[in-house]
Amino acid sequence: MEIKRKWKSALGKLKDTLSDKEKILKSKGLPNYIASEIVESFEVFENEKISEMLKDKEFAVFLRKYFEKEKLGV
Predict the structure, then answer these.
(1) How large is the average pLDDT for residues 46-71?
(2) In degrees, to the nearest 5, what angle opens at C-alpha 15 toward C-alphas 51 and 20?
(3) Model's pTM, two decimal places?
């Protein structure tokens, strides 16, 4: 039997979670200033939008250095 799930994608779950009230976001561990900005508005970039943004060489260099510094890549 298949279980009905509220979210069918990570993107859906992320958007739902980030749509919580500021107090809840803070209780989930988001810093105060980030939680207050997210409550105002946020946008999740994926696929084509990120590819478009990477055409900006300065942004591409920044992003690469960020991931190298944080060692977030696998």
Answers:
(1) 89
(2) 145
(3) 0.64
Residue 7 DSSP one-character state: -
Give tens-digit pLDDT for 20-41: 999 999 999 999 999 999 999 9
Q: Indicate if the alpha-carbon torsion angle 7, 8, 9, 11 is positive or negative.
A: negative
Written in H, E and C, the secondary structure of 10-24 is: HHHHHHHHHCCCHHH
46 near 54, Cβ under 8 Å?
A: no
Q: What is the DSSP letter of 9?
A: S
What one-character-per-residue DSSP string does 11-71 give? HHHHHHHHTS-HHHHHHTT--HHHHHHHHH------HHHHHHHTTSHHHHHHHHHHHHHHT
Q: What's the whole-number mean pLDDT along residues 5-32?
A: 93
